[in-house]
Amino acid sequence: MKNRDQANLRQYSGLEVLLHNLPYILMVCLGGTVLWRWPGRWWAIGYLCYGLIGALWTMLFVCPYCRFWGTRSCPCGYGLIAATLRQRADCLAFQQQFRRHIPVIVPLWLIPLVPLLLGVWRGIDPVTTILTIAFSVDGFLILPLVSRRCGCKDCPQKAACPWMRRLETRPTCTLE
């Protein structure tokens, strides 16, 4: 049964969800391209799979604890997918689950930097360097900026989120 307060929450369209996810998709594609150039295609394919598994991991182990599980009030859209994969869990544990499981995807930001660092000793490939710079700009600047300024800014769960927590309030399960 949906809470009657959900009618007052912002509902994200499919296009908005796509736009919120585009920097992550671009980061994973650029990272895969960097790895395709060196060390090779199997690393690139593994990295692309890791990017998909990272999103699925979040849906399985973080989203069920979010107050907006199963609603269109989730800016990234993961909550709707998560509702088809797992039962809702105790939303008071959201912050703990987020902190526990987000480190699983952190290597996505680091793995594509390895070819550039190793390239210093092997000789720097200009194309790989440009791709790695594009990856870094997207992953370390654009993605966090889009998250903070767009999706996270309007997320009603942000007070309980370690990524965006700005207030010293205790998380609750009530919809605001």
Structure description:
- The chain is mainly α and 176 residues long.
- 59% of the residues lie in helices and 0% in strands.
- The chain contains 7 helices and no strands.
- α1 (14-37) runs antiparallel to α2, α1 packs antiparallel against α7 (126-154) and α2 (41-61) crosses α3 (78-85).
- The radius of gyration is 18 Å and the shape is elongated.
- Mean pLDDT is 86; it is low at 1-5 and 166-176.
Radius of gyration: 18 Å
- Tell me the β content: under 5%
Structural class: mainly alpha
Largest sheet: none
Kindly state the mean pLDDT as a whole number?
86
Helix residue percentage:
55-70%
Low-confidence stretches: 1-5, 166-176
> Count of helices?
7
Sketch the topology as an H/E string, one letter per element.
Answer: HHHHHHH
End-to-end CA span: 17 Å
Shape: elongated
Structure summary, number of beta strands? 0
Brief descriptors of the model:
176 residues, mainly alpha, disordered C terminus, single chain
Summarize the structure.
The chain has 176 residues and is mostly helical. The chain has helices at 14-37, 41-61, 78-85, 94-101, 107-110, 113-122, 126-154.
